[in-house]
Specification:
Elements: H1 5-14, H2 31-37, H3 50-58, E1 67-71, H4 77-86, E2 91-96, E3 109-113, H5 119-129, E4 132-137, H6 143-153, E5 157-166, H7 186-197, H8 211-215, E6 216-222, E7 225-230
Parallel strand pairs: 1-2, 1-4, 2-3, 4-5
Antiparallel strand pairs: 5-7, 6-7
Length: 250
């Protein structure tokens, strides 16, 4: 009996002799997006491309006794998502200005109520949480709120912590105090910090290395997101190895 080639190939695929090209298997999926897609708990509202950014920068903290702080509790769904993602050893904190959010805490989850533009309030939050491993800033989105939160809490991150601020597209929206290249927006503020990241190479007295330069390993810019990764940074140096491939010029 003759078997048509396309039938034979189909049988081989079924038997596992050909690679399955339908897409990634479950173990390769982004666990955050997988949780979001299957969510039957509290409401979660996220831009879909955020999940890849989260997982890229947060994966190394999973399953560890870390401190997570999220600004912008809303309906509480993301707090549940972070609990699932980081695991039972993590302590989760949330911050929101809506007093109703105080009821959205739970086991190893606590919600602070206050205005994130109030620097004294932010200092009280930092005093209670202790060093923060991961901070997700998804709060009120105004320029004053975003900058105050960064300035007050970035120094309270652990030496290898991550500060992720999302929805920075509001830096371009007048409703939130934004505008294209408008001074005082978070995006213009962050652009200035890219200079500070490179301050080791300054050749002028009014631009020098500071604490941000010494404690920030990298900055990452994505659509609507800026990520700061902490780390101990020493003055960079260059080295040379190998043999010359041509005689030096006379």
């Amino acid at each position: 009996m003759t078997t048509w080639p396309w039938i034979r190939r189909r049988l081989e695929w079924v038997r596992g002799r050909l690679p399955d090209r339908r897409g990634p298997v479950a173990s390769d999926e982004n666990p955050l997006e997988k949780y979001f897609r299957g969510n039957t708990g509290r409401v979660i509202h996220k831009w879909i491309h955020y999940f890849d950014v989260y997982h890229r920068h947060f994966e190394r903290f999973r399953g560890k006794p870390v401190v997570i702080l999220e600004f912008g509790v809303n309906k509480g769904g993301s707090l549940q998502m972070w609990r699932d993602y980081f695991g039972r050893k993590a302590t989760i904190y949330g911050v929101d200005i809506d007093p109703r959010c105080a009821e959205l805490g739970g086991r190893r989850i606590k919600v602070f109520i206050g205005d994130q533009e109030d620097r004294e309030f932010l200092r009280k939050v930092a005093a209670e949480t202790g060093p923060i491993d991961v901070l997700i800033e998804d709060g009120g989105h105004t320029m004053g709120q975003q900058i105050a939160t960064f300035e007050e809490l970035y120094p309270h991150l652990t030496p290898d912590g991550v500060f992720l601020i999302e929805d920075v597209h509001t830096s371009y929206w007048p409703k939130y105090g934004g505008g294209y290249r408008k001074p005082g927006t978070f995006m213009e503020y962050a652009k200035g910090l890219t200079d500070q990241l490179n301050a080791w190479h300054a050749r002028t007295q009014d631009f020098s290395v500071d604490e941000f330069t010494r404690t920030t390993r990298s900055m990452h810019f994505y659509d609507s997101i800026v990520v700061f990764e902490r780390g101990t940074v020493v003055k960079p140096h260059a080295e040379k190895t190998g043999r010359p491939s041509a005689p030096p010029p006379e």
